[in-house]
Design goal:
Elements (H helix, E strand, L loop, with lengths): L1 E2 L12 E5 L3 H6 L9 E5 L4 E2 L4 E3 L7 E3 L1 E7 L8 H4 L3 E8 L2 E2 H9 L5 H5 L4 E2 L3 E3 L10 E6 L2 E7 L7 H11 L7 E3 L7 E3 L4 E6 L4 E8 L1
Parallel strand pairs: 2-14, 4-10, 5-17
Antiparallel strand pairs: 1-11, 2-3, 6-9, 6-15, 7-8, 7-14, 8-11, 12-13, 12-16, 16-17
């Protein structure tokens, strides 16, 4: 079952957790290193936008990138959940884009500072239509892609995630209590690249069952 978020105003979203460095080739393109545990950062609720909305480029950055991702919607309160039970906490999934001000992030990394500003501007967390999750859906074999103005920029498969969806949920639940409405962005494959004002971005996951179209404006 698929549903557009805007048609369900009762949905109350909570924390937005994001996982970095979860695809080996993306780690390579960013000249980063693999980590023993998931890299976790957060976005504010104000960064969320939905299908047909607009990504607003901040004046503080001149190098904003798209990062297409599988997004999980948590459906129940959990704490210290084991890996083999973690998938039962998912209510729905969607395609999403972790929008990143790369120049601000690079400067933060260089100076040992947090990434929050580079990831958290208003409109920096677009997500597509949510698809009700069942355990019959294999989250570790979903094609994921993003196009900018009709040009394919990123194309990958969730089988290449270094930390699987159930491992991510379990790990996060051992650090924080997760609540219904929390969202988890699970990391991006290689191919991230800049977006500019006037661009149209289309993203999808699976057999087009979650799709997203957003526009870019300065």
């Amino acid at each position: 079952m698929s549903f557009e978020i805007k048609e369900y105003p009762y949905l109350q979203f909570g924390s937005i957790y994001c996982i970095g460095r979860n695809y080996a080739r993306h780690i390579e393109e960013m000249k980063s290193e693999r980590t023993e545990d998931p890299v976790v950062f957060l976005k504010p609720r104000s960064s969320l936008i939905f299908n047909k909305d607009t990504i607003l480029l901040p004046k503080e950055s001149t190098n904003v990138h798209h990062e297409v991702e599988l997004v999980l919607l948590i459906g129940k309160q959990i704490r210290n959940i084991p890996v083999d039970d973690a998938l039962n906490s998912i209510q729905a999934i969607a395609v999403g884009i972790d929008v990143t001000a790369r120049d601000i992030q690079s400067n933060a990394k260089k100076n040992g500072l947090p990434w929050a500003l580079s990831k958290g501007f208003d409109s920096f967390a677009p997500i597509g239509n949510l698809v009700e999750f069942t355990t019959k859906l294999n989250l570790q074999d979903l094609d994921i892609q993003v196009q900018v103005n009709g040009e394919l920029r990123q194309s990958g498969n969730t089988s290449n995630m270094l930390f699987s969806a159930d491992e991510i949920i379990s790990y996060l639940s051992h650090q924080f209590t997760l609540y219904p409405g929390d969202l988890i962005f699970t990391g991006t494959p290689e191919g991230v690249s800049p977006i500019v004002s006037g661009d149209t971005i289309k993203a999808s996951i699976g057999n087009q069952f979650s799709t997203l179209e957003v526009y870019v404006r300065a």
